[in-house]
Amino acid sequence: MEAGKAVIVAVAVPAQRMLNLKVTPTPRRYFGASSTCRRQSLDPRNKFAPKEYLGKEIVDDYAILRDQYETPENPIVLAHGLLGFAELKLAGSFLPSIHYWHGIKDALSRRNCEVITTTVPPSSSVEQRAAELARGIKARAQGKSVNIIAHSMGGLDARYMISQLKPAGVRVKSLVTVATPHHGSTFADYLMDEIGPDRLPSLYNVWERITGFETGAFNQLTKRYMTEDFNPKTPDDPEVRYFSYGAMVHEKPPLLSPFRLSHGIIYGIEGPNDGLVSVQSSQWGTYKGTLSGVNHLDLINWSNRFRFTFQRWMGRPPTFNAIAFYLDIADMLAKEGL
């Protein structure tokens, strides 16, 4: 789940006015969460004791770049998340392009990694996104085996492609997921609950008219869908290595942060999270650890430069460098013979 996920919240209020909808306030239930979320809040794992499920807490391992990184044998595929893109050109050649993987692809390429960036429909269903991911890999990899590194929902696309589509001509050696909601998101439950089933069709219609994007992704990110439908039907491929990372922020996000609301809702039920995905939900396969003090956008190098500058002024230099993180993933893949 990405920062763009908050867009659907912003659309909700204008949509009510456009469609002249009569809105009946939804009674608040445990931060507005659904009954599914409230039942899961009773899970004994939700005591928020870090040693129980944070795995290795990664504090400053990726604060600076190392001199040496090994290069994996096979190409790396970068798979973006919800509302993502590979490259976005807003004004043709007049303005620089915006890259989802900000500086990450270039850094990997400079270390002699062969890198493939893919683009899938921004908010379509996992099934549609996975099919497009397969087409992109097949066209670019030319029969080579690949290692996939996926951010957020991109990890679900990759898992579905590997497990269900099994596309001819696409051979995956490993999948590394970064803050992927493998077990769903309390915030997705919250949005579905607050909007309500009666208003969802109208809101989806407004979303499609305004953005031109489909809406299949949104209800697939709920905890119920992921745990009761997606995961049971999407087993791991024994021929593929699965690794995962999670992340968490320590303090309540500031007033203007896109994660102000979502962080609190998720923390109240699932515990530590990066603003959109909890540490618990991020875990799949071999869990490599929890990035400490890192939010969902920091993970793709869309960090708040003002925040980092302020930290330096206060004598607290940043402890996370996204470039160093992805170079280390490539180094890990190389050491694993992938």
From TrEMBL:
<protein>
    <submittedName>
        <fullName>Triacylglycerol lipase</fullName>
    </submittedName>
</protein>
<dbReference type="InterPro" id="IPR055803">
    <property type="entry name" value="DUF7379"/>
</dbReference>
<dbReference type="InterPro" id="IPR029058">
    <property type="entry name" value="AB_hydrolase_fold"/>
</dbReference>
<feature type="domain" description="DUF7379">
    <location>
        <begin position="123"/>
        <end position="190"/>
    </location>
</feature>
<dbReference type="Pfam" id="PF24096">
    <property type="entry name" value="DUF7379"/>
</dbReference>
